[in-house]
Amino acid sequence: xxxIVLGExxxxxxxxxxxKRQVSKAGIFADMKKNRYFETPLExxxxxxxxxRKLRRTHQR
Length: 61
Prior knowledge:
By secondary structure, the protein is mainly α. The chain contains three helices and no strands. The N and C termini lie far apart (39 Å). The model has no long low-confidence stretch (mean pLDDT 90).
């Protein structure tokens, strides 16, 4: 759970920016998108294989 504490003279805009930074750093949005739809084991294996190929391709250069 991500939470921030507002400073005494802190504006809403800066607090919102800090909150967004913490959420992206924690990987909450990525996890939320990943769990949005059910993925069959076959789809999961295909996705991982594609990611593995992409990673291998970028490290070869």
